Structures are given as C-alpha cells and as structure tokens.
Amino acid sequence: MIIAKQYRCIHSATCHCTKGHLSEEVLFLTVQHLNWNPNVIATLSCVCKWFDDLAKRLLWKEFCRARAPKMVCDLQSSGSHSVDGSWRALGKLLIYCSGSSKGGLFNDVQIPGHFVHRTRFSRTSGRSFLPPQCRTDDILYVSDPCEHLDQGEDGDLGFFRGIFKSFSMSKVRKLLIRKGTSFHPTEVCPYCKAKLWSMLQAKMIPQSASCRLGAYEDSIEYYVCLNGHMLGVCTLLPLSDSEGASELQ
After folding, report:
1. What angle is formed at CA 82 by the lines to CA 62 and CA 123, rounded to 5 degrees?
2. Which InterPro entries match (predicted)?
3. What is the DSSP letter of 201?
4. Number of helical (H) and strand (E) elements in the chain, helices listed first
5. DSSP string, 36-102
6. CA-wise closest residue to 230 among 172, 174, 169
7. How far is the C-alpha of 115 from the C-alpha of 233, rounded, in Å?
8. The model's pTM
9. HEC profile for 177-192?
C-alpha cells in the first residue's frame, strides 16, 4: 500500500494526529518489538512531519544499529552522534540495491532498483576499492555484489554499494578535488540525493577491486557522492575464473 506523504502537519496542539496519539517512548518500544522493521518506519514517516522527524532522528538510527552494529559503531567512533548523509540514507543503503536506469549512471544498463533481505558490508573488502595511497588513513565499507545474472550482452552483472567513514576528511575526497574531477551532470546519489564523482573518470579504480569482486578488470565503474556513499557495477567472471582471480589477490 502506497501512502501519500503529509508535509503540512507540524504536530501542534491543535493537530488531529494528537487524538489518541502515542508518545515517543511507546512508539520506540513498539518499533523495537517489531525488530525495527523498515516498512513500518517508512509508513510512520508518511503520517505527518512529526512522525517523519521522529523517524529521521531516532528510528532509522536504531534500525541501522540493529542491522549493522559493528559498522555503525565504527562509523561513530570519532565521537559523532550522526553519520554522513543522515540515518535514513544509511538505512536505505543497507537494504536497497540501486540498480540502473537506461541512460543513467551506467549508460545502457537497465535493471530496476530493489530491496534486498540482507547484505554483508566489509571494511576489509573496502580496502580493495581504495587507491593505494589512501589505504592507510581512509576507511570504506563495501557490500558483496548483488548479482543479476544472464543480462544478455552485458553478461552477469554485480551491483555493489558502500559508505566511507568521515568522508569529508578522507584522502579520497581530497584527491578527487585535487584532480579536478567533475560531478555527474544529471544523476545524483540514490540514497541522499547528493552530487556524484566518477572514480573511473578520476582514474582511481585500483586493480584490486576487480580481484575482490571476481569481475573483469575493465568492466568496473563506481561513483562516490559528497556524503561518502559509494555505488557501482561490474561484469562478473564465470565462477571458475573468479575463483582463480581471488587466489591472485
């Protein structure tokens, strides 16, 4: 069921939403009991601005902490109580494969975005996507590829996504700026709507990325947005070849 989002209500004393309304504490415990179900949180966000603010401030944060506790703890280890690009954006990144529209980020690749049940994000894998000169200081978490097999001439495609820790202070960001890398002229991050840099255009995709993904080296392309969200696509090697590539890594 699609619910139209309401923006006018600010949950004032005269708001009709307050009639029989639950407190923040009760809502928190209810959603917690439902194991931070993202469908419930998204539906609550559509009720009015008060519910939307509560979801952005608290519920999406708890969802992220429940879904990826170690990663979230690391992302906050610098002392921040927030993450780059908002908790809602991170929550979406954890459970949503962005896919690609024809003529979009990945040219003629056309695969609809979709939700995924569960995805593993790895800091160790993320190192393989960083240029060698950035691996000492930068931290990047990257997902396993979401496989879309038998895509005609495109072969077996894998979509992957990730997030940087403290991207505004990262060496990758400084290097992108130093190189004068331009933003994508039309597309924005599907998770936070920020502008995107192409790592392929900046010539900052290391060979180790293809080994980690089990993909053809010249088929990898990924973008990083201003908030440090990363999304990309690759053409996967046949299983026997990808096993050999992983041994070479």
Report:
1. 80
2. EID1-like (IPR040267)
3. T
4. 10, 10
5. S-HHHHHHHHTT-HHHHHHIIIIIHHHHHHHHSHHHHHHHTTTS-SS-TT-HHHHHHHHHEE--B-T
6. 172
7. 16
8. 0.85
9. HHCCCCEEEEEECCCC
As given in the structure block, the two tokens for residue 157 are: 């495609």
Instruction: Determine the angle formed by the axes of helices 38-45 and 60-67, rounding to 10 degrees.
Output: 170
Mean per-residue pLDDT pooled into runs of 10, the chain (249 residues)? 51 56 82 93 84 89 94 82 82 94 83 89 95 95 91 84 94 96 94 96 94 90 96 86 51
On the CB side of 16, how many CA atoms lie within 13 Å of its CA? Answer: 3
Distances in Å between the Cα of 42 and the Cα atoms of 14, 17, 37, 92, 176 are: 25, 17, 9, 10, 34
CB 173 within 8 A of CB 225: no
What is the spatial distance between Cα 141 and Cα 120, in angstroms, rounded to a whole number?
Answer: 10
DSSP line for 7-28? -S----TT-GGGTTPPPHHHHH
